Amino acid sequence: MEQVAFFAGAIGALGGAIAVIALRNPFYSVLALVVHLFSLAGLFLLLHAEFVAAAQVVVYAGAVMVLYVFVAAYVGGFEEPLWDAIPGQRILAPLIAAALFIELSIAVLGSGLKSLGSEGAIIPAGFGSPEAIGRLLLERFLIPFEGASLLLLIAAVGAVVLAGRRPEAEGRIDPEGTKASEGAA
Amino acid sequence: MDTTWYLVLSALLFSIGAGGVLIRRSPLVILLCLELMLNSANLALLAFGRNFGNADAQIFAMIVMVVAACEVVVGLGLIVAMYRRRIPLDVDENRGLRG
């Protein structure tokens, strides 16, 4: 049963990932990423990470992907040119990716960690439940937790500054951007 | 399921994401490929956490998700700003910082 669930999730995640980089329309790529994230949430459930799986579905597949869909719809389709910017790029890039995969596989399979070939340690009841995660976040990892909230605040302010409509102040806020737009015009 | 299966799957997803970053031109799709890489790292973290019976890995995964959300927000803000200023949305056209 667990094997069936794992392979179903793995096939979903791999298919979604391949569709993200293979589809030409960015909008379809975003939808493929949603499939990928849902499959990955299923795998997280198999790994007894219930809270992370729920956060993955609610925050990632829900909120972040809506943001992507809005931006893809706002910016519109982008036709990728067929010429290679670097000669042989379309052949070299998959080769580099394959080399990376082989290297990572060697690192995993040759690590000599005995426990990797097993189910793993016996986990206590309530492993990965919201209660356990909440205790860890508010006791042992309180400072990283607060740092993450500060980071989110800075990112939200930064996005408003970057994307805000402020034509008269463009030169003052972002001199690089105005230079680039003059060059494009 | 053995932990090795999860780790190999994670390596495969990471390689797909890295290949996508190298091969695609649209900044939006490059951000999506970065998401793929971050999520494969999360899968590896959770697999190790399950293997060693340690819930700290799940906190790591949550923090990775927070950082990914920040990266998405700033990246999409940059894409919207580029679109408004009529800068072409093609990473090969924008070579002003190239030495």
- The appropriate CATH architecture of chain B is Orthogonal Bundle
Overall mean confidence score, pLDDT of chain A: 83
Low-confidence stretches of chain A: 178-185
If classified by CATH, what would the architecture of the domain at 1-79 in chain A be?
A: Up-down Bundle
The total strand number of chain B stands at 0
Termini of chain B, distance in Å? 49 Å
Taken together, the total number of domains of chain B comes to 1
Provide structural commentary:
The complex is a heterodimer of chains A (185) and B (99). The N and C termini of chain A lie far apart (60 Å). The C terminus of chain A is likely disordered. Among the domains of chain A are: 79 residues, NADH-ubiquinone/plastoquinone oxidoreductase chain 6, subunit NuoJ (Four Helix Bundle (Hemerythrin (Met), subunit A)); 45 residues. Chain A contains eight helices and no strands. Chain A is an all-alpha fold and 185 residues long. Chain B has 99 residues and is mainly α. Chain B has a single domain, classed as Helix Hairpins (Orthogonal Bundle). Chain B contains three helices and no strands. In chain B, helix 2 packs antiparallel against helix 3. The longest helix of chain B has 29 residues. Chain B starts with a helix and ends in a 15-residue tail after the last helix. At the A-B interface, helix 1, helix 2, helix 3, helix 4 and helix 5 of A face helix 1, helix 2 and helix 3 of B.
Map the helices and strands.
The complex is a heterodimer of chains A (185) and B (99).
Chain A: H1 2-22, H2 26-46, H3 50-75, H4 89-109, H5 130-140, H6 142-163, H7 170-173, H8 175-184
Helix pairs in contact in A: 1-2, 2-3, 5-6
Chain B: H1 3-23, H2 27-52, H3 56-84
Helix pairs in contact in B: 1-2, 2-3
List keywords for this structure.
heterodimer, A: 185 residues, mainly alpha, Four Helix Bundle (Hemerythrin (Met), subunit A), 8 helices, globular, B: 99 residues, Helix Hairpins, 3 helices, 0% strand, elongated
